[in-house]
Design brief:
heterodimer, A: alpha/beta, five-stranded parallel sheet, 5 helices, 5 strands, B: 4 helices, about 40% helix
Chain lengths: ~130, ~160
C-alpha cells in the first residue's frame, strides 16, 4: 500500500517545493494529496486516507492552528501524525502547535535531510516504500 | 547605527544567505548598495512585502531582478528557467520574502508573538532610510532586503 502524504499550504509553489524536497529526502514512492487550507484538507480527508499530514500555519479560511484543533476533535483523524512546516519558529508558536497535537515542527529554511530526520522521528518504523 | 539595528542587519545577512542556499539552491553575498547605477535603474525588478504585527510590528521588503527571480524560481520548483511563468516568479518572490521575514523575526525575537500577513507583490522601493537595508550579489542577479521595525509603543500611564 502506497505511503500517502497530505500537504496543506495556501502557496501553490510551496506545495510543489515540499513534494520535491520529500522526494529528495527519500520518499520517492510516496503519493501526495494537496490542500490549500485547513478546510480544504478536512474536506479531502472525508474520503481519502493519508499516513502523515504536513501543514503550514498562516492560511486563509482555516489556519493551521484551527486545522489541528479540528483533527484532534475527530476520532478518525486524530491518530494521523502531523508535522508543521512554517516560517514562524518563535517559542510560543512552536509550543502552541505541539500542544494542539502536532507531533513535529520544521521551520523554514530547511534541508531535505532535516525534513527526513523529523519525519523519521515522528513516523518511527513505518516503511515508506510500501513493502 | 544603534546596536539593535546592527544586530538586525547582521541577522538579515545571515538569514538571507541561509534561505537562498537551503531553499533556493543559490548563494547570496552581501555587497555595497548602489541603486543609482544605470543597470539598477533600467533593470526589471520584482518586489514583495511582508507586514507583521505584534511585538514587534513592521515590514520586510525583498527586491530582486527578474532574471534572478526566474532563476531561483527554477531552483525552487525543480524546473528549467524557460518553463517559469511570470506568475510563478511573483509567487516565489513572495515566498522568499516570507521565509526571510519569518526566520529573521524568529531568531531576533524568539519569545515574541508576531503575526505575519500574507506576502504581497508591491512597487519597487529600495528603502526610505528606515530600519536596515542590504544588497546581495547572487550568481544570477542582485537581491535587496529592507526591514523596518516599528518603535515599541510607550507604556500607558496609570
Amino acid at each position: 500500500m502506497a505511503f500517502t502524504v497530505m500537504i496543506v499550504d495556501d502557496s501553490p509553489v510551496m506545495r510543489v517545493f515540499i513534494r520535491r524536497v520529500m522526494k529528495l529526502a527519500g520518499f520517492e514512492e510516496a503519493e501526495y494529496l494537496e490542500a490549500c487550507d485547513g478546510q480544504d484538507a478536512l474536506d479531502r480527508l472525508k474520503t481519502c486516507r493519508v499516513d502523515v499530514i504536513l501543514t503550514d500555519i498562516n492560511m486563509p479560511r482555516m489556519n493551521g492552528e484551527e486545522f489541528l484543533a479540528e483533527l484532534e476533535k475527530n476520532e478518525a483523524l486524530s491518530s494521523i501524525p502531523s508535522l508543521v512546516i512554517s516560517t514562524d519558529a518563535t517559542r510560543d508558536r512552536v509550543h502552541r502547535m505541539l500542544a494542539l497535537g502536532a507531533q513535529g515542527y520544521i521551520s523554514k529554511p530547511f534541508s531535505p535531510e532535516a525534513l527526513r530526520e523529523e519525519l523519521d522521528r515522528v513516523l518511527g518504523e513505518i516503511n515508506v516504500s510500501g513493502n | 547605527m544603534s546596536r539593535e539595528i546592527e544586530a538586525l542587519l547582521s541577522m538579515a545577512r545571515v538569514v538571507t544567505g541561509e534561505v537562498l542556499e537551503t531553499m533556493f539552491f543559490s548563494t547570496a553575498a552581501p555587497i555595497p548598495c548602489d541603486h543609482s547605477g544605470e543597470a539598477a535603474v533600467h533593470q526589471d525588478w520584482i518586489s514583495s512585502r511582508v507586514r507583521f504585527a505584534g511585538t514587534p510590528s513592521g515590514e520586510l521588503r525583498v527586491m530582486l531582478s527578474r532574471e534572478l527571480a526566474r532563476s531561483i524560481a527554477a531552483g525552487f520548483l525543480g524546473s528549467e528557467p524557460e518553463e517559469i511563468t511570470l506568475e510563478a516568479e511573483g509567487q516565489v518572490g513572495c515566498e522568499l520574502g516570507n521565509m526571510i521575514c519569518g526566520a529573521v523575526l524568529s531568531r531576533f525575537h524568539p519569545d515574541s508573538r508576531v503575526a505575519l500577513a500574507p506576502p504581497e507583490l508591491t512597487p519597487v522601493n529600495f528603502g526610505d532610510g528606515r530600519g536596515v537595508h542590504q544588497c546581495f550579489a547572487t550568481p544570477d542577479g542582485q537581491l535587496s532586503v529592507n526591514m523596518h521595525l516599528e518603535p515599541n509603543p510607550a507604556p500607558g500611564n496609570g
